[in-house]
Each structure stands twice: as C-alpha cells, then as structure tokens.
Amino acid sequence: MKKLLTHGLGYDTPEKGDEVTVHYVGTFEDGSPFDSSRDRGEPFVFKVGLGQVIKGWDQGICTMLKGEKAIFTCKSEYAYGKQGSPPKIPPDATLIFEVELFSWKSVKDITGDGGVIKKLLTEGEGYNKPGEKDEVLVEYSVTQADGRVTREMAPAEFEVYCAPCEGMKVALKTMKKGEVAKITLKPLPWPRYADNVTENSNAEVVVELKLVSWRKVESVKDTKEKVWKKILVEAEGGYNKPNSEATVTIVYEACVLNGASDPFERSPEGGLTFKTDNDEVIEGLDKAVMTMNKGEKAEITIAPEFGFGSDADVSRDLGVVSKGSTLVYTVELVELEKAKEAYSMEDAEKLDAAEAKKTDGNDLYKAGELARAKKKYDKALKFIEYDTQLGDEHKKRCKAIKLSVFSNLAAVGLKLKEYKEVIDSCNKALELDGGNVKVLFRRAQAATATEDFDIASADIKKILEKEEKNRDALVLRKALKEKMAKQREKDAKIFGNMFKKMGNLYSKDEAGKPNIVDATPESVSAMEEGDEPPEGATPLPDGQVAFEEV
Q: Quick one: DSSP state of residue 55?
C-alpha cells in the first residue's frame, strides 16, 4: 500500500531496468527502525524491476515521480516472506518504508536483443524525437573495449538513416533534444550494430551521444513520398496551418536539385500571394505549403510528377527548368488568412458556396480540365454533406445541388473511364431521384463498360419506359446487345469442352456447332422487338458521354 507524502515533478516515472537513486527509512509496524540510508549518509542506488530489491519496492518505485516522497507498507509476501532476512527481519514481517525518489538514469535494451543498451545521462526537453529522415546535429565520442578513445567528443551533422553505425541510428530515434546518453553496442552475429565505429567486431564499444538539435524531414501527405519538407525554422505561434482555399503569402527561392546553384525563380517583392488547393501554383508546392505553420521556413524537395513534369523544358523568370527536373524550394509562410469553413457558415452560405463550386466545376468540365472539375465538385459536396442539419426551407435546394453534382461527377468519371466511381455517384444521385433519366443512362454506360449486363439492361429498360424513342438509350441498347453476343461467343469457346457431356445445357445444330442456352437478361430480350435505333445511328464512341449538359 502506498501513502503519498510529497508530490513529485512532471509525469515520467522509472521503468524496468532504470538505475534509481533514493533515500529510505525502514521500520516495523511498531515503529522501531531496522535500516536507514539517511543514517548512513548516502543514498541507495539500484536497478528497479530486476529483483535487486524486495517485490514491494520493484513495484512501488515505478509509480513515483522525481522528487516524490511516499510511505510503502509491504506485507510479507511483498517483502522477505516466510523466511524473513535474519538477523534483522523476522519471518512473515510487514515492513514500512518512507522512500524519497531523487532521480533515475534510464537503462534500456532498446533493440530487445541485448545489442544496444542505452543509459540516460542527461534528460532531454519536450516530447518529440527525430525520425528516420530527419537531419540531426549531434556530438559523440567512441570508446573501444580496451578503454581507448578513438573519437573525442565532437559535433557531426547527418540524416538519421545515415548515422555512423546502426546502433547510433536506433538510439537517436529514442532521444529528445538536448539528451545525453551512453550507448553500449554489444557484439552480435546480426545485426552488426557497431560496424564502422568498432575496431574489434567481437568486443563491445561505447558511444557517448548528445542530440543537440534536429531539422524535421517529412513526406508531404498525398504525394506518395514524391514531395519532402525539411523544416529550417520552426514557427513560434504554434499550430496555424492553411486550410483549403486559404489566402497565403510566401517568400521563396527555387532551384534545381543537383543542378546549377543559381535559382530559376524568386518570389516577387512582398511575396507571392495565392489561394491554396486551387491549382494556382505547382501541385507539390501547393501541398507542402498547406503543411506549414505561419512563420515557418522550410526546404521543399519536389519530384517532377508534382513539379513541372517530364514532357518539356519550362521557362521561368530567371532561367529554364529542364524536363524531368527535381525542384528545391526554400519557402517561408509569411501571411495566412484561412478560408471560412462550412461548420461556421449559415445554411444559405453553405448552399451558395456549394453552388459556386459546382459552377466552377462546370466551367472546368467544358474546358476539358476533368481532374480539376472533379475536385471542384467534391468541394461542393463538402459544404452540404451534413444536409440533415439544414432548415426545411433549404433542403429542397440542397437536394437539387447534390443531384446535379453527383450527376456531373458521373459525367467526369465516364470521360476518365473511372467506371466504378461513376456507378457510385449514380447510385447516390438515384437515392435522391430514382427515375432521373440522365443518371440512369450514365450508370448504364458505366455498367456496360464493366460488363455488368444486368444493371445496364435494367437501366436502359427504365429509360425506354419513360422515353420510348430516346435515341441515346436505343443506341446504347444496341451496343450492349452486341457486347453480350460477343461475350457469349467467348464463353462458348472457353467452356464448350467443359460442358460437352452436359446435354441439358448443350445441343448441336446441323453444322455441329454448340447452341448455348440464351443468357440474355430478361430486361433486354423484352425490348428486342420494335423501337430500334433510328436509321444510321451508331454506338457511342468509347469515352463519349451522352446528356453532356452539366
């Protein structure tokens, strides 16, 4: 049982294997003392959790904060048990300890195989630790097993994954800024933690390591590790990053990686102002700026896929960027005005914003910029995705906008041949208006392309029930029937031999060719007579979208 006498500092507590320093006074239940480090005039040092002390201490000390003072009452099973500890401790004795925890040095097997043992010498600050790609500034020394110092304490700068040895790389990822640790690298068959710093691969080596500082290097989200950001100067104001379509001002200089040292572009006087996530700058720069805090300065490395591409050279203000170049931008985010979020808008504002994004999408669609159009339609939906919270007077308008946007997303998907997304958009639109002819037709087109003949046939049938002379539906039905016939011929060749003995499914005509049971969906066969496409009508060319009005 633990009784707290004095609160400690911070939140950290010792862990198994840590070397702790305590003062204690031990008494029996009647108050008579049997041991005291205070009387001896020197604190007691031991490794907690390793059985060097009684069970009650191993468990109790791990609950204490630095500077804490507490009383532990230890029943015999948590002290010396039935045998006691003659001559001082009798059998089955309950012991009471007043313990003060001064400090501890963390000693950890950080790899779990005994290959890298880390002993904390000086606490670091904060909570953050460097990652694999981060650029660190350290000071370190190396001492061989025979006591010779083969590297005096001196600074070095490198990326963590390029550390002088594997053991240092592993240790650095556990350290905080300003932390000092003694790293003991043991000789193992594998991994070889000390290679490049040891002179004897069969002996341990000791590295004293201080993490002075580091620059965080991270992959920018949604770039598949094609855009990397290294923070040069941290922002002082805390978290304050741009949202979509925020108005930002950046000061920057850009050059080509491993190319000429001269920049090919600089920001204009006063900086470059643009809206984020609005295709106003190259994609890699846009995405990286959205990860920056106001006041942050960073180095951004951009692969061609998110820069100027690999098709042709590009002329910029101060020079020409060769095709396929990797770009390096040094950027400072100096001004930021966030765009208003949907949750802070009134109902009418949300609908107006959604309508505006839909109109932008329509303009881009007509200009053939399909990916950008799709992005605008997605943004439109974000303003009205939680339509259940809208007032009744706005729900009708919201439904109309949603229906139009889903339909337009389907039109974009057909152009891009993203047929699964087309079907998904059409399904959502049909939840709002189950008989919408335009949406049914687009879903039928996508289903035909993916050979989902049942859906395509059913949708065409619904369209012709509403508009029996609908030219586009009649053309698509003809194309569908031709595609199904080709599929039947293909199936016959593949499965003909397999089913040769199954007389109930196959028979032979006079020419000896197999006749396969007609697998045409009922909805198509029911429309086979009459209402044929107008004379001269042909199937829609691949990728063409009927009802293109958006």
A: H
